[in-house]
Amino acid sequence: MHRRHLTAAALAAALLAAWPVAAQDTVKIGLILPMTGPSASTGREIEAAAKLYLQQNGTTVAGKTIELIVRDDTGTADVTKRLAQELVVKDKVSVLAGFGLTPLAAAAAPIATQAKVPQVIMAAATAVTTEASPFIVRTSFTLPQVTVPLAEWSAQNGIKTVVTLVSDYAPGLDAQKAFAERFGKAGGTVVEQLQVPLKNPDFAPFLQRVADAKPDAVFVFVPSGFGAVFMKQFVERGLDKSGIRLIATGDVTDDELLDKIGDVALGTITTHHYSAAHDSAENKAFVQAFQAANGGMRPNFMAVGGYDGMHLIIEALKKTNGATDGQGLVDAMKGMSWTSVRGPVSIDPDTRDIIQNVYVRKVEKRDGGLYNVEFATIEAVKDPVKAAK
Ligand code: PHB
To answer: Which residue's CA lies nearest to atom 8 of ligand 1?
Structure first.
């Protein structure tokens, strides 16, 4: 009896002593994503990619165990902010990550600054977003970064007049401005600039204006997940038979949606930083593993932002030997370079934005599916907005 009692006491003491050590040995990453609502595909893709990264690379780094905590912000900025606060204060996460839309990333930025916790943006793509906190590091892209190469390609390929049509919020306005400036410099004319509400968009009246203006091409940006609705209305208004060419950022011909959009997308020229058809050994292995782990779902550029975001966090922890001081982690991330499944990338130490190749692509049929097939590469592109400052 006596002996058993002692054993129990010793066990309790051992447990008590071990608990704080165990807590310190865990590094928590709070992943805030829209898992429901119109941008749910972004959440689904990034969560799957982050989990795949840990599955492939293990959850132990510098003797610490990585724990991923996924939270659904439903695509609502107030919720993002509250979740960021909770994750920092209650869960004591060392890193905040995810952020499916620009307003969501902006809502969390003050929390990252106050708590001195790195905020790894895996999706949101407005150029100025990284300036909202010195703790932001981005693994997605910026709209001007991918739009400028399309403006140049268009001017060099016989397109003289363009109407631009974008979702009416920060990344759309970024894309519109970048296109107009660069296309104008290259000798083209933007004849009209249209902005469509982000929520429950009805493209029909805007497409009618495009039809009436009869430009050589219409340049489009809508965020990931909205491309199918746009393309459906594009066809319904007869724009596919109007002789007006469709040119877009790769957000519109998103890999997850492309087969659902169907043959009407064939021939569409887009520019972007990732295609599931990117021709490299790293990407072939990634696409195969991602599809095997997710019931055949095709990885899109959001998944790659998530996969590379996890890589950045894990490699930074290796560099700090497991230390989780926020400034130390951000410093470790600055200047980091690696071979991504999208091609070579690095984190610009001055802007904390990603430097990457931008590809010109054409929608084509391959192995029975539709893909954005890359046919030209602009290497190591920096965000042009911050590069100009
Ligand atoms: C954004 O809100 O910054 C955003 C979202 C989805 C995209 C691009 C940009 O595809």
So the answer is: 223
Counting ligand 1 atoms within 8 A of each CB, the residue from 136, 145, 224 with the most, and so the one to mutate, is: 224
Closest-CA residue to 42 (of 254, 271, 246) = 254
Q: Whose CA is nearest to atom 3 of ligand 1?
A: 124
Distance between Cα 123 and ligand 1 center (Å): 6
Pocket lining for ligand 1, CB < 6 angstroms = 101-102, 123-126, 171, 223-224, 251
User: Residue 207 is encoded by which pair of tokens?
Assistant: 């497409």
pLDDT per residue, tens digit, the chain (389 aa), is: 444 455 655 655 555 555 554 557 999 999 999 999 999 999 999 999 999 999 999 999 999 999 999 999 999 999 999 999 999 999 999 999 999 999 999 999 999 999 999 999 999 999 999 999 999 999 999 999 999 999 999 999 999 999 999 999 999 999 999 999 999 999 999 999 999 999 999 999 999 999 999 999 999 999 999 999 999 999 999 999 999 999 999 999 999 999 999 999 999 999 999 999 999 999 999 999 999 999 999 999 999 999 999 999 999 999 999 999 999 999 999 999 999 999 999 999 999 999 999 999 999 999 899 999 999 999 999 999 988 88
Residue with tokens 């990284």: 130
What contacts 336, CB < 8 A, 6 or more positions away? 312, 315, 316, 346, 347
**CA–CA separation, 188 vs 160, rounded Å?**
5
pTM over 0.85: yes
d(CA 131, CA 129): 5
